[in-house]
Design a protein that fits this description.
The protein has 146 residues and is mainly α. It has six helices and four strands, in the order αααββααββα. Strands 1-2 form a two-stranded antiparallel sheet. The chain starts with a helix and ends in a 7-residue tail after the last helix.
Length: 146
């Protein structure tokens, strides 16, 4: 667990990576950090490195699609919690089997699996962990639930 000083430093570095000094002045660091968390919850994955530009002036928050400029930090955090609650859980037996197989490998715990219309999609597979990914794929008993 990070201490308050460490958390503040982490937040400052994270915001500096994605926001300009003008945006930091306009929105504030805590609101921008909350906006970055919202974007990650919306994407279902951490923001990519190296950082992609974020159009904070066009970012809309929550169901009512309020511009970030007009949203309070608390509203951004509430919208993030709402997205986190509704995050998709594996629904098919194939998805559950794949998630269980990937969970055995620390580098593959964040891999997402979707099975739709007989097609399997994987996202978030680290390039450095392809050998472990191939090995984990070999242990999955596909088609158990059919």
């Amino acid at each position: 667990m990070l201490r308050n000083e460490e958390l503040g430093a982490y937040r400052n570095v994270r915001v500096a990576k994605y926001a300009s000094p003008a945006e930091e002045t306009k929105y504030g660091i805590t609101k921008l950090d909350a906006a970055l968390a919202y974007i990650e919850a919306k994407l279902g994955a951490p923001l990519a490195h190296p950082p992609l530009p974020v159009a904070f002036d066009r970012l809309r928050i929550g169901k009512h699609r309020v511009l970030l400029e007009n949203a309070r930090r608390e509203e951004v955090e509430a919208a993030t919690r709402e997205l986190s609650k509704s995050a998709k859980k594996p629904t098919s037996s194939d998805e559950r089997a794949a998630v269980a197989s990937f969970a055995k490998h620390p580098a593959l715990k964040s891999v997402r699996v979707r099975v739709r219309a007989g097609l399997v999609t994987f996202t978030g597979v680290p390039a450095a962990s392809m050998a472990a990914f191939r090995k984990a794929l070999g242990t999955i008993d596909w088609g158990r639930g059919k």
